[in-house]
Amino acid sequence: MKTTSVMIVGVGGQGSLLASKLLGRLLLDEGYDVKVSEVHGMSQRGGSVVTYVRFGDKVYSPIVTDGEADIIISFEKLEAARYARYLKADGRIVVNTQQIDPMPVIIGAAEYPTDVLDELTAKGVQIEALDALSLAQQAGSAKAVNIVLMGRAAKYFDIPYERWITAIENTVAPKFVEMNKVAFDLGFHA
Q1: Closest to 25 in 3D by CA, of 147, 170, 143
Q2: Residue 44 has pLDDT above 70, yes or no
Q3: 69-74 and 87-96 as β-strands: parallel, antiparallel, unpaired?
Q4: Domain boundaries of the chain, sorted by first residue
Q5: Could you tell me which of 3, 72, 61 has the C-alpha nearest to residue 32?
Q6: For position 13, what pLDDT does the model report?
């Protein structure tokens, strides 16, 4: 089996590390060799965060390079644009339509690009955009954006729905399991 490369990108505090932990655990339970690498950057200050998850029969490196990602799961629009160069020609980006202003926008030194997803689509990038924030709030917490996005991305993995639910039960803190199961389901059926 070929190695599959996934990138989970977002802004510090959005739960990308939990998402990568969930995906890594699920893939290990499915019998794959899995390598995960986390790059925190300025995550504590709302900076860009990227996690690489690679899996297959035998994986030698966790790092994804330009043009290697089969799927990018992006928690924010600008982060999708920032990491689009890593996507394979036939790859896909699952992206939350939420806008989180980076520091240059907050201080007035720059403007947030209004048509970032349209520009990517015009370049031929396959994008599946959804309002994961609204779905997370519907599930019970804005913090569940990560699990909503994992639910949507699950459609691109050959792993049964029930196994994802088991991985949530084994990864998420017990008091948040039910809410995260709802969030996953909302994303999966969005």
Answers
A1: 170
A2: no
A3: parallel
A4: 4-188
A5: 3
A6: 72
- Residue tagged 């980076």 (tokens): 102
Q: How far apart are CA 89 and CA 35, in angstroms?
A: 23
Number of helices (H), then strands (E), belonging to the chain: the values are 8, 6
- Residue 48 in 3-state DSSP? strand
pLDDT of residue 42: 53
- For 4-188, CATH gives 3.40.920.10
Quickly state the pLDDT bin for 157 (edges 50, 70, 90): very high
Q: Is-contact 8 41, C-beta < 8 A?
A: no
The string of DSSP codes covering 68-84 is -EEEEEESSHHHHHHHG
Asked whether 85 and 66 are in contact (CB, 8 A), the reply is: yes
pLDDT value at 136 more than 70: yes
- pLDDT of res. 40: 57
Whether 163 and 26 have beta carbons less than 8 Å apart is answered as yes
- Name the pLDDT band for 48 (thresholds 50, 70, 90): confident
At 38, list the tokens: 């986390």
pTM of the model: 0.93
49: region left, alpha or beta (phi > 0 left; psi from -120 to 50 alpha): beta
Average pLDDT over residues 22-31: 96
Tell me phi and psi for residue 72, to 5 degrees: -120, 125
Residue (of 153, 181, 155) closest to 168 by Cα position? 181
